[in-house]
Amino acid sequence: MQRYQNPSLILESANIKEGKVHWTCPSNIALIKYWGKHGLQLPKNPSISFTLDNAVTTTSVSYVASNDNRISFDFIFNNSRRDDFKPKIQTFLERISVIFPFLKQLHLTIESTNSFPHSTGIASSASSMGALALCLCTLEEKLFGTSMPKNEFYRKASYIARVGSGSASRSVYPVAALWGEFADIKDSSDEYAIPVQDLLHPVFQSFQDHILIVSAEEKSVSSTIGHALMDGNIYADSRYQQAKSRLHFLMPALKSGDLETFGKILEDEALTLHALMMTSNPSYLLMRSGTLSIIEKLRTFRMSTNIPAYFTLDAGPNVHLLFPENYTEIMSDFIQNELSQYCNGNIINDKVGLGPKV
Ligand code: PMV
After folding, report:
1. What pLDDT does residue 13 have?
2. Going by CATH, does the domain composed of 207-351 fall within 3.30.70.890?
3. Would you say the CB of residue 33 lies under 6 angstroms from ligand 1?
4. Ligand 1 contacts CB of residue 37 (under 6 A)
5. Are 2-199 and 207-351 the same fold in CATH?
6. Among 67, 69, 111, 308, which has the highest number of CB atoms less than 10 A from its own CB?
7. What does 298-335 look like in DSSP terms, one character per residue?
8. What residue owns the CA closest to ligand 1's atom 9?
9. What pLDDT was estimated at residue 119?
10. What is the predicted pLDDT for the residue at 118?
11. pLDDT of 228-261, one tens digit each?
């Protein structure tokens, strides 16, 4: 937390006016997965993701003066007060209060809505922590009348978001982001993500991600526990090496538009993530029979049509189908006719997006 600590960010209490800031931040889908962490949300290996377009969280933070000298806030999700979400946000705000000491001089009302239904099993921590981090960075600028250069603003927001949820660090940039130190890319860091849109071939800048919701139930093992179980996983060290090696081969494929190499690495990463869950102690399974049916049907379809459509998985049973934009119509027909039976027609059509919006 050294980097952005700033004890001078204290307000003259007589001058605190009330106000409100807003941000909309998208979710993201990892191509190389972050799985395993240390310290305060630092990754054991670098990861890279596409930023999504439709799956977004919109957050507003209203503030008034408070003289309790402690973190004080209410949290409202989809227009209802949600005290059950408060402990996670409380921990986050406490942690970053060394960066934003003025938070203890305010009472905040944090209001969030998701564009995707809450119970879809789509991870919302990336978009919600991303949106909150952006709001807090804007709040600092508004209260102190400062303005950071754009790239520094987003870097700080990424750093703050990372403290809330590792994958959220990647959500504050358009198109694609890389988080974690990686020798091939200058400026990469474990502390914040960096934008990598410029390192992508145009075919990836409009890539589609259609998400098949096999199950909307809450996961039996949370990501927090999953990351922690990596500490005792006998494959952990070779996994961290493997992630770096795959990233080393993925970056040139992203640059040149090599869909075959991209797709192979994408699918290998998804299966590795779930293999790590199956080889944890205790072992657990988040895929469902529908997940496997979709994967097998997709692979058969790809063999017979040569359409470059590939799958990936998050830490859950839902399948992300990624393919170039010009195949959208044929893929939508295939999904409707062959795959929708495995997800009760519960499909979110998303694509690579342009990042957060004020
Ligand atoms: O950011 P977390 O702690 O929710 O972990 C996310 C982990 C994966 O979604 C499975 C992979 C990733 O890199 O996004």
Report:
1. 77
2. yes
3. yes
4. no
5. no
6. 111
7. HHHHHHHH----EEEE-SSS-EEEEE-GGGHHHHHHHI
8. 314
9. 57
10. 63
11. 999 999 999 999 999 999 999 999 999 999 999 9
- What's the token pair of residue 179? 């988080």
Count Cβ atoms below 10 Å from residue 40 Cβ, excluding itself. Answer: 10
Query: Which atom in ligand 1 lies closest to the alpha carbon of residue 33?
Result: 13
Got the DSSP string for 247-315? Answer: HHHHHHHHHHT-HHHHHHHHHHHHHHHHHHHHTSSS------HHHHHHHHHHHHHHHHH----EEEE-S
Level-2 CATH architecture, domain 2-199: 2-Layer Sandwich (3.30)
Domain boundaries, the chain: 2-199, 207-351
Q: What angle do CA 295, 298, 299 make, to 5 degrees?
A: 85
Q: Helices 236-256 and 259-278, interaxial angle, to 10°? A: 160
Residue identifier of the C-alpha nearest atom 6 of ligand 1: 167
- The amino acid sitting at 252 is P
H or E stretch at 226: helix 223-229
129 lines ligand 1 (CB under 6 A): no
* The total number of residues written for the chain in this structure: 358
Tell me the mean pLDDT in the region 327-331: 98
Task: Read off the tokens for 50.
Answer: 């596409």
Determine whether the shortest distance from the Cβ of 165 to ligand 1 is under 6 A: yes
The DSSP symbol for 18 reads P
Is any ligand 1 atom within 6 A of the Cβ of residue 314?
A: yes
Report the DSSP beta bridge partners of residue 49. Answer: 30, 177
The residues, ordered by sequence, that sit 6+ positions from 314 with a Cβ below 8 Å of its Cβ are 29, 30, 123, 320
Number of DSSP helices (H) and strands (E) in the chain, helices first: 9, 13
